[in-house]
Design brief:
This protein is of the alpha/beta class and about 260 residues long. The protein has 9 helices and 10 strands. The strands form 2 sheets. Strands 6-7-8-3-9-10 form a 6-stranded mixed sheet, sandwiched between helices. A hairpin with a 2-residue loop joins strand 9 and strand 10.
Length: about 260
């Protein structure tokens, strides 16, 4: 793999029933250190594509290479240690309900850093919670006692606990109000900018955020990448489908700024 790319997908195909292909020849190269946003209509396979990048699904055919590793050739044991290089923020933050804020962030550190003592683990978790702007008074709270935005912060702190090289977000602002959505978007952007060498990939339906946050945008349609480029490349595209997406995102941004 070229050191320039963190993710390389080549003619990636995936079918679950042997007939209909959710992914039908995806070609995508994501540059190291970039913030890339994956967009597309609902049901186009964005989450399926993300699961291939995480090694949770194996391709029916084609190549899925992440951080220089062909994921279809990694053993289950090696995959566990390999995933230390990933951080993931799921749609609902996926926190453990019976663990406090600090315990949730400590969890992956305890699992993967057996060399650290308890006090070191707690200190590391505290630094991550501080980075995402969570108040100390919330460290002992359970997820049910936190607001939606605070749970996202805890989820992000846990995602960066092990200093990942690759950070993936699955619909990070779904279900949040506009103010909370902007807060999470800004948090994603500041996290990316302040962690040198970090590559971030966001799967989202929020087109305004896609064009505001992304260094690059990849549009998935009918199982393939319709366009991969900068937000400006999308703005200049004459493809009718891409123009509809761009106009929807731009109009939302304009209406938001008018409020």
């Amino acid at each position: 793999m070229s050191e320039e790319y963190v993710v390389r997908l080549k003619d990636l195909k995936k079918t679950f029933d042997g007939k209909d292909f959710v992914l039908n020849g995806v070609d995508l190269e994501i540059p190291k250190g970039s913030l890339t946003v994956l967009i597309g209509f609902s049901g186009t396979g964005k989450s399926v594509l993300l699961k291939h990048m995480l090694g949770l699904l194996k391709p029916t055919s084609g190549l899925a290479e992440v951080l220089g590793q062909d994921l279809s050739k990694i053993s289950s044991d090696d995959m566990i240690s390999f995933r230390q290089k990933f951080g993931v923020l799921f749609q609902n933050a996926a926190l453990f309900d019976d663990m406090t804020t600090i315990e949730n962030v400590c969890f992956p550190i305890r699992e993967h850093r057996r060399d650290l003592k308890n006090a070191q683990i707690i200190r590391l978790a505290e630094t991550r919670l501080k980075l995402v702007g969570l108040d100390v008074k919330d460290y002992g709270k359970l997820p049910s006692q936190l607001s939606g935005g605070m749970r996202k912060r805890v989820g992000l702190a846990r995602a960066i606990a092990l200093d990942p090289e690759l950070l993936l977000y699955d619909e990070p602002t779904t279900g949040l109000d506009p103010i909370m959505t902007e807060m999470v978007d800004n948090l994603i952007l500041s996290t990316h900018k302040h962690r040198e060498g970090l590559t971030s990939i966001i799967v989202t339906h929020d087109l305004y955020a896609a064009f505001r946050l992304g260094d690059y945008v990849a549009m998935l349609n009918q199982g393939k990448i319709l366009l991969f480029g900068t937000p400006n490349d999308f703005m200049k595209s004459e493809n009718e489908l891409i123009r509809k997406f761009v106009n929807k995102g731009v109009k939302k941004g304009e209406s938001t700024s008018d409020n």
